[in-house]
Amino acid sequence: SLDTILDSLGKQLVPPDFHQASSGSSLFGSQHSDEEAEDAIGPSPQPQRSPTLTLRDQRTARREKELRDRKRWKTLRDFVDERGIEDELDAIESDRNDLDIVLGTTDSYPENLMDTVSGIEKSLPGKAALPPINAIINSQAQASTHMANHLESLASHYEQMAGAMRESEAGEAFSQDDLQDMNRDTEELPSIMAELEEGIRSIESSHEQLSSGKTALSQHLELLPDTLRDLDELGEIMAEMLQCQESVEADADEHITTLHQRLVTLEDLHQRFVAFQMSFDKLLVEMARRRQYREAAEKIVEGMMVQLETMAEEERLVRVRFNADQGAHLPVDICLCIENPPTRWEVLPWNGEVMEELPDIDYDLIVEARERVAGVEDVVPGNESL
After folding, report:
1. Is 54 exposed, middle or buried (0-12, 13-18, 19+ CB in 10 A)?
2. For the chain, domain boundaries
3. CB atoms within 10 A of CB 115
4. What DSSP string describes 252-263?
5. Is residue 174 within 8 Å of 164, Cβ to Cβ?
6. What's the CA gap between 349 and 25, in Å, rounded?
7. Is the CB of residue 277 less than 8 Å from the CB of residue 8?
8. CA atoms within 13 A on the CB side of 277
9. Are 52 and 355 in contact (CB under 8 A)?
10. By three-state DSSP, how is residue 6 classified?
11. pLDDT tens-digit series, residues 159-193
């Protein structure tokens, strides 16, 4: 994460020579002072000593204390523009708050819908206590059938009595059996009438039950238009909610796209910081390599100067002996250069260039940098190790 790489940058020390102006040329292009330039290119007071070593001794005392006190050193994080990171994080937080506000406009929709639906359910009429219509109809059918049978019996009895009356008026005498049958039928009339009256009462009771059920259903039907009106209003509300929700989704998508772009920016910053840290590690390794090259070149120069000085001294002694042995026998105006000493040589930077000055880097920092660089190059195939 970004915090992790920033913490890592905050732990990696930067030697002071990498960012402070120094007497010599530095990594960031500081130049020599006039006095030191003269020391670098002028005649050496000690031909046996390297000019580079002389310059190094001059600045060592001045920087020794500072180099030991690492608590005062800067870190890689000091070279990072954290203000830009904070601005980007503030922008992300602002966009996130705006997204929360947009999404919050529909937070109450589910609760409002539930409350509205619950109110409609409560406004519905309770379940009507309807009579058992099928049982009542079956009972009426049975009663009607039973009454119809009784009425048929009464009609048959009436026809028999009417026929008997006509026969009696005609002077025909009835037998004892006929009289008994007529008397028996007459005696059954009260019970038949009672059953008919009972059937009538049963039918009237069923009629009252059905009428009561009809009244209850009518009352329920009177309440249903209000419920339908509430449902229509709920449908309109839901349509408005759906339209608003679609608008919220569109706005949320825009905010999410913006947030994604900002996250991509942070990821790019993370990659840049990782590359910055790796490049600095490679810079430390490169400075160590250059120092190794410079020291090797200095050794060659020092060896050449010692060899040239030795050769010059040997040549001087040879010339002194020659002049001592042969000078008295030669005219003074012959070969005037015979008295000249041998040429003394001094190896100096080419074309008057300023000697390269490299930043001082502690060995442990170089070792750590090499380990980090080697670790990354082991993971990425194809890279060559330093």
Report:
1. middle
2. 84-281
3. 11
4. HHHHHHHHHHHH
5. yes
6. 15
7. yes
8. 22
9. yes
10. helix
11. 777 777 776 666 666 666 666 766 776 777 777 77
Residues in the chain: 386
**Lowest mean pLDDT, pick from 222-231, 335-344, 356-365:** 222-231
Q: What mean pLDDT do residues 228-238 have?
A: 88
Rounded Cα–Cα distance for residues 317 and 222 (Å):
141
pTM recorded for the entire structure:
0.55
Yes or no: say if 40 and 233 are a contact pair by the CB < 8 Å rule: no
- Name the DSSP class of 77: G
What does the angle CA 287 – CA 290 – CA 293 come to, to the nearest 5 degrees?
155
Beta strands in the chain (DSSP E): 13-14, 74-75
Nearest Cα neighbor of 294 from 56, 61, 65 is 56
| Cα gap 139→203, rounded to integer Å | 8
| Rounded CA separation 230/68 (Å) | 84
Task: Give the pair of three-digit tokens for residue 203.
Answer: 């039918």
What is the amino acid identity at position 73?
W
